[in-house]
Design brief:
about 240 residues, three-stranded antiparallel sheet, single chain, alpha+beta, Growth Hormone, Chain: A, 2 domains, four-stranded antiparallel sheet, 7 strands
């Protein structure tokens, strides 16, 4: 799909590929969010039960119908716990069909003054195999549209739109910002999933991509077929008109 984007970027233009790419990304992320929401909505909040099982600074809780409630649709159940203890926030998941279906959080001698706090505990059915295939299809669709659109156009358009005198500094700053955002996403992913579920994460990024689509469709100038000098002259002329 990257090769498709490279082949079309000078024929169809930057705006065309960005609109197609970001539009497809929005559809893929929203569809994945709906798939996750379909089974996450069947989960129940068992935070109070899990918190009540904390003893001696640790936790040992069997994941079965006797302790957490009946299975849904005869499927294996999963307990996902988001908790704070010692060194920070953590997420743990145990399935009822695991070889040892017991949630175990060992007491931490270094955290005697910090009690084990269960922030969120959700108990629900394990997704079906079909759900896994649907999520994979959504992710493949996301990769395809991203590769053909933003992955090809974003850095190209950015370098074309920056004036020559600041291009090296501007591209360096953009790269640092890009890496910082990627690091931030990695840092907040598990806490966000633990607090709100996978669907919230996918819906949030679909919303962010809507902003990208609107920017590409209505605010980004088309630079296809123009030299760097012509692009810079275009902005200088627009600046003079504004003055």
């Amino acid at each position: 799909m990257t090769l498709v984007g490279v082949a079309l970027v000078d024929k169809k233009g930057r705006k065309f590929l960005l609109k197609i790419g970001t539009g497809g990304v929005i559809i893929a992320l929203a569809a994945a969010g709906l798939v996750f929401l379909a089974f996450e909505s069947k989960r129940v909040d068992v935070r109070e039960k899990v918190q009540a099982a904390v003893s001696g600074g640790g936790l040992t809780l069997p994941v079965n119908e006797a302790t957490l409630g009946p299975a849904v649709g005869g499927r294996p159940m999963a307990l996902t716990v988001f908790y704070s203890y010692g060194g920070g926030d953590k997420v743990d998941t145990v399935r009822s069909d695991d070889p040892d279906p017991v949630l175990k959080i060992a007491s931490d001698p270094k955290a005697l003054n910090t009690p084990l706090l269960i922030k969120r505990a959700m108990y629900g059915p394990v997704p079906t195999e079909g759900t896994g295939w649907l999520v994979m299809a959504c992710l493949c669709l996301f990769i395809a549209f991203f590769s053909a659109g933003p992955a090809v156009v974003a850095w190209l358009a950015l370098s074309e739109l920056m004036p020559t005198r600041i291009r090296s500094t501007g591209m360096g700053s953009a790269l640092v910002l890009n890496q910082a955002v990627g690091t931030g996403i990695a840092a907040v992913f598990l806490p966000t999933v633990g607090n709100f579920g996978y669907s919230a994460m996918f819906f949030f990024w679909a919303g962010c991509t809507v902003i990208s689509f609107v920017t590409a469709a209505f605010f980004l100038p088309e630079t296809k077929g123009k030299t760097l000098e012509e692009i810079e002259e275009y902005f200088e002329t627009a600046k003079l008109r504004a003055v």
